[in-house]
Amino acid sequence: MIDPLAGDLTDEIQAAVTRSSRSLLRRLLKKPIAVASLSFLLFIVLIAVFGPYLAPHDPNAASAADVLGPLSATHPLGTDSAGRDVLSRLLFATRFSIAGAALALIVAALIGVTGGLIAGYYGRWFEGLSSWVVGILQALPGIVVLLAARAVLGPSLWTSMAIFGVLLSPAFYRLVYSTVTAVRDELYVDAARVSGLTDGRIISRHILTVVRGPALVQASFVAGVAISIQAGLDFLGLGDLSIPTWGSMLNEGFSNIYTDPVLMLWPSLAIGLTCVSLVLLANALRDTLEQSGRKRRRTRRDKPASIPPIEREPIVSHGGDHRFDGAEVLLAVDRLAVGYGQDDGSITTVVEDVSLTVRRGEVHGLIGESGSGKTQTAWSVLRLLPDGGRIVGGSITFEGQDLAGKTEAQMRALRGLKIAYIPQEPMSNLDASFTVGSQLVEPMRVKLKLSKSAAKARALELLRRVGIPNPERTFNAYPHEISGGMAQRVLIAGAVSCDPDLLIADEPTTALDVTVQADVLDLLRSLQSELNMGMILVTHNFGVVADLCDTVSVMRSGRIVETGPVLELFARPQHPYTQSLFDAVLDESEGAGSVAADIETADTNGALR
Amino acid sequence: MLSFIARRIVSGVILVVAISVIAFLLLYAGGGNIARRLLGEDASAQTVAQKSHELGLDQPLISQFGSWVSGVFHGDFGASWFTSQPVSDAIVSRLAVTLSLVLGATILIAIVSVVLGVLAATRGGWVDTVVQVVSLVGTAIPGFLIALGLVVVFAIDLGWVAPTGYVQFTTSPQGWVGSIILPVIALSLGGIAGVTQQIRGSMLDSLRQDYVRTLKSRGLSSRSVVLKHVLRNAAGPGLAVLGVHFVGLLGGVVIIEQIFAIPGIGQVAVTATSQGDIPLVMGLVVATAILVVLLNLVVDLAQGWLNPKVRLS
Amino acid sequence: MAPEETKMFNFRKRLIAAAAASAVAAIALSGCTPAASRAGSPSAAADGTLTIGTIVASTTFAVNNSAWANESPYLQAVYDTLLHADPDGTVKPWLATKWSYNADNTVLTMKLRSDVTFTDGTKFDASAAAKNLLRFRDGTSPQKAYLATLADATAVDPTTLRLTLSAPNPSLLSFLTQNPGLEESPAAFGTPGEKTTPVGSGPYVLDKKATVVGSTYVFTKNPKYWAPQQQHYAKLVMNVYSTPTAILNAVKGHQINGAPLTDNSTIPQIKGAGFTANGQQLNFFGLLLFDRSGAIAPALGNVKVRQAINYAFDRKAMLKAVGQGYGAVTSSIFSPDSSGYDKAMDSYYPYDPKKAKALLKEAGYSGGQITLTMPTSSGFTPATYALTKQYLGDIGIQVNEVNVAPTSFLGDLLAAKYGSTVMQLKAAPTTWETLTLDVLPTAGWNPFHTKDATVSALAKTIQSGTKAEAADAAKKLNTYIVQQAWFAPWYRPQQTYATDPTTSVQTQTGNAYPYLWNFVPKK
Predict the structure, then answer these.
(1) Interchain CB distance below 8 Å, A252 and C405
(2) pLDDT tens, C481-512?
(3) Which residues contact A463 (CB under 8 A, 6 or more apart)?
(4) Which of B117, B288, C91, C358 is 20 to 30 A from C5 (CA-CA)?
């Protein structure tokens, strides 16, 4: 099948590839360390290529009269124990050492990359055989193999570096194989296949581009190792004695260490600096690749984009709610501002002028679109903002004390015991390495000073309370062995385990299946009334607000635009933004009546309270 | 669990066999005139021929390998051609010495890497920079250059320890420590650098995980969350890297023992391979392969214990 | 970050890191010059322990396969020999008290001691001695050829031993002071532990518990030894040091009382540490020009070419550059202790590249047409080969160096694969040994089996003539070999044995290691 589009597609891709490799280099060159190491390596390569032509003497020209001579005009770096010029030997040695390392690298890359590509793409028996061979290669200590090979094949530099390349190939093989298998089933490869690209083209266009970056990083490390090992073998006098290499010069210097220790300096510098440059370059490459990865995959939740400044406008506040007048004020947030420090020292504000109150028994909903700052507000109360975030204005008063000014130790005393938290995504909020039970028990033992058995009993009781059918089994299970709904129940159990006064729930049902959401909301409602907790409920769903909340604040771009009792706000939204949100809900929902029905139910429930 | 171990042992045995065959072929193929090498320059050609016959070197390759294998099944690995000592004695007696070096280095690597990696990841700032620089130095600069400096400072200038020789633990625990401390440090440096980097990286990753915030929200201290939970999760990759380094240690110990005059497996390996002492080299190859297989098994089991997701039951 | 991406990304990062680690893993190479240590210095006199260094491990304790030279201390610790040799080579009685040859030197009758017992209780007698001799002759010792002419050994009576030879052997008595003369208990013959657990009658016994095979050998005094005046110590410790650096470190660290120095450049160091450098001349070092018939290197077939090679080298400079000046220049392979030694032969070939070029021209080679192929060995410094190439290159001879695996080096040389080589060989203490090792057509180091009428005639006299006749013939032979330029020796390097201030020693002519009973604590 010939698809006329196929050609365009691959050209597009080709263009993208070129663009991305150019931008990779550009990004790399922005780092001073990368520039420095690349320059040094370039310098070394230049010496390797041109140095021998610049050498003042024949590196093997021995002279009995000049043994261990001092620095002079004819011998700028002196002479060694056979009277040979050190500078000339150093120049030639650079060529041989670099060439040897390059040989090992090329052999390793050729074998490893090709093997990995074939094994990953075509799999089956080839993969089985390859991984077996790789296992053997990795089981052999390199030095022993090289020693044995030398005994058999002689001390030639090229033979031993070629063999070493074979020993190093697993490094490339594993990398390429895992990348290929991960990418092989990606959708875009399927698309390429469907549009008629041959396997060869798929491999070269798509897969190689993915492998390229990590393979470069690998190559840098491998080159460094090859140089070190070669130097080591030569240093022990087990290398090729007929040609100068850095290692053999080091060996020379070492044998004369008491008579002429400076001989060791030059090869040491050469080896050390080259290895350091290779490692630095590899690190820089890796960081650059990760940055590009991170940029594309950055989550919005942790570090929000900066918010365009909005004119300060008065907050629309619906008064007239006296249901909780008698209850104590648990939380009073007053003109809270939260910001993140930037690399250039400035602060980007993500939450501004936020004020709200939560009394005991009151459920206060924070509603808004993604990026409105509602989660940031919630985290601020807990003082658990991500790296770089901090409260830059206003106050948070909890049971009469300002949380913004408390020390970490003081906050720790409150968390779990007085203020609790239910996160959004259940699976990533449980530590996969520990059983569910242990994660319930551990904080209880710390906060409530319970014994192990008492804590376990309480944990089982909590699990039962949150509606888990087989508490014992769940207690002993690991997070990956339970469903998302059950995990969220566990997290809820954990949150209420120490009878907190204030509960902060961050979109507790968003990540759950629709079928489970209602149950979890029921659970939250019953727990909240049973323990008479004050609650901040962050959500983007008006249905949830209608279901659970007594008060609601609407947030946009880090500010509260409208606040008030739920019934009042739902019935008469006044701010244009709030109205547009309601309009959107009404447009999207199956039946316009559902929201109204929710309001009815909420009203009834509220009346029952 | 048992079937997992059994499967690994079987594949390990196959690995050992494969390595033995390859090693045997390599050694015999290029062995040169072993008998001549054994007897030296003054022996007559007739003596050399007689010695060749005595060692079975005039047999075809297959039958030589066959007799080695049948010997192995009887637990007889032959005797060194250059010291007449039974190979199994030679290896076992020196294994304890080498293991004390290698295990000592592994433990040192593990402890120091965890400490440095955690510090670098949690403290950040100048601590992180210092740790990165130290890692770089350990990674990039060949160990023998650093070891040279260590010896000059600690053994010569300060005289705290003896520079060469090995004191058995049973003779004097203090002397034993003194004799292995410099070799162990020299051996560990590369590993510390690599594992620290890995742990630092994994720690940084893990610290960004959601469950860290949730656990803190339950009122647990930062320290206990980091040390109990985050480290546990970061340890897995660190352990994998440590396992890789162990194989490297087996290679590195070869040079270290040669220089520090420590009578371990490494010293024997260099002498045996350079002399072409085939029975001894074969024994060493088998012993090393077994060690590596066992190590990989231990690492995998430890990974399973650390990370429940990879457990096979 | 989508879970899939996270997994792959993290996996990839882990791979990179793991690969980086594996890349780094193989390094940990270390070299060091551990120098002086304040840790325990064994003082020879104080606690009666002699700690000496050796450069090879003991290959076997079974006498019939035993090696000598650097392994002699191991064997001398646990075994007696039939005869003893003084440091200057004079043969003295030991287990054999009297001996005499018959008229044509083909039957040697020896009288043996009757008061010697092996450590396993077996009595030493002529029958045991005879068995040991025959076993050695039929064994695989490197020195097996020493007893090649032993037709038979019999015990006439418990204290009388008779050796019957197929041809006279002027060095036989000397040989009986070495490993052919070692006496092992016949009860130990062929036992499984024979190679590692010696049973002898010697001054010390191997302490297997304290011994680490290949690294440290420990011996304790034999309480029942029949010659207690020869036991100067209560304990012997022999440590194997494989590199010159290791020996130097042990010396500087005061960890040994004595050791051979394999690198003379360390002499100033050991002297600085208070040790004495006991020197002797044991070997000769230079070029061996095997292919005197021009079989594979036609140029070497011409004596003028070989002589030119001899004139090409500045021996004094070679001694200084390669031997650090320790030794004596020479153009001859004969040891000063041998009857064939002639001082004139030490300076026969001066450094004269002009003359060398002229000789080459006379021989028909006017520069650049001769190429010599030589194997290289890691046993000689790169400087040696570099200088060889240099000097020969100066007179127009190219040297083609071939990298040979160490295990094949000796074998290839002795199989006549190369026409010439750099080599260090023993300068034997007796002329006959020199002939059997290097000169005779059957000599190992005459791989092309060069036959020469003059040499054969002189060799006959040396073998069968009177002492005076043999000495005269030996000198004549020396001169002939030098003039015929069979070799191009540069110098006799100094063989150095270092001893600490508490130990005195006398070097043994013709042996790399002093004999054990000559180690004496200094008063």
Answers:
(1) no
(2) 999 999 999 999 999 999 999 999 999 998 99
(3) A440, A471, A474, A475, A489, A490, A493
(4) B117
**Cα within 13 Å of Cα(B108), Cβ side:** 21
> Which two three-digit tokens encode residue C108?
């040697």
- Chain A segment 202-261 residues within 8 A of C by beta carbon are 214, 217-218, 221-222, 224-225, 228-229, 231-232, 235-238, 240-242, 248, 252, 254-259
pLDDT at C335 over 50: yes
Residue C174 near residue C85 (C-beta atoms within 8 A): yes
Q: State how far the Cα of B103 lies from the Cα of B23, in Å rounded to an integer.
A: 26
Given a contact cutoff of 8 angstroms between Cβ atoms, the answer to whether C252 and C62 are in contact is: no
Place of tokens 């009297």: C98
- C229 to chain A, any CB pair closer than 8 A? The answer is no
Q: Give the sheet arrangement for strand A329-341, strand by strand.
A: A347-359, A329-341, A389-398, A401-402
Rounded Cα distance between A595 and A585, Å, is 8
Dist CA A206 CA C394 (whole Å): 62
Tokens 């007929």 identify what position?
A: A242
Task: Out of A61, A174, A228, name the one closest to residue C27 (CB).
Answer: A228
SS3 C261: strand
Please give the backbone phi and psi of residue C36, each rounded to the nearest 5 degrees, phi first: -60, 140
DSSP state at residue A394:
E
pLDDT in tens, C161-216: 999 999 999 899 999 999 999 999 999 999 989 999 999 999 999 999 888 888 89
- Contact status, residue A495 vs residue A421, Cβ threshold 8 Å: yes
- pLDDT tens-digit series, residues C129-165: 999 999 999 998 989 989 999 999 999 999 999 999 9
How far apart, in whole angstroms, are the C-alpha atoms of residue B260 and residue B278? 25
Q: What average pLDDT does this structure show over C370-377? A: 91
Cα(C264)–Cα(A195) distance, integer angstroms: 77
Nearest to A221 among C23, C33, C389 (CB): C23
Which residue from C214, C244, A149, C212 is spatially nearest to B273, judged by alpha carbons?
A149
**What letter does residue A365 receive in the DSSP assignment?**
E
Q: Using H for helix, E for strand and C for coil, what is the string for A235-255?
A: HCCCCCCCCCCHHHHHHHHHH
How far CA B260 is from CA of B148, C1, C70, in Å, comes to 11, 51, 23
- Per the prediction, chain C carries an average pLDDT of 87
Query: Token pair for residue A348?
Result: 């980007």
How large is the C-alpha radius of gyration of chain C?
27
Q: Which residues pair with A504 in a beta bridge?
A: A421, A536
CB-based contact, A423 to chain B, within 8 Å: yes
User: CA distances (Å), B116 to each of A2, B131, B132, B192, C350, in order?
Assistant: 58, 7, 9, 9, 67
- E strands along C96-141, which residues? 96-101, 107-112
Bridge pairing between strands A389-398 and C283-289? unpaired
Helix (H) or strand (E) holding A350: strand A347-359
Question: Angle at Cα A94 formed by Cα A90 and Cα A97, nearest 5°?
Answer: 125
Compare CB distances from A139 to B15, B27, B258 and report the shortest one's residue: B15
Distance CA B262, CA C30 (A): 13
Alpha carbon separation from C23 to A549, B139, B238, C475 (Å, rounded):
59, 9, 15, 64
CA distance C275 to C294: 48
CA–CA dist C483, A396 (Å, integer): 109
CA distance A477 to B121: 30
Between β-strands A559-565 and A316-317, what pairing exists: parallel, antiparallel or unpaired?
parallel
Say how far apart CA A260 and CA C337 lie, in whole Å: 37
Is A419 within 8 Å of A502 (Cβ atoms)?
yes
CB contact at 8 A, C498 and C276 = yes
Write down the residue that tokens 């201390």 correspond to.
C73
A498 DSSP 8-state letter: T
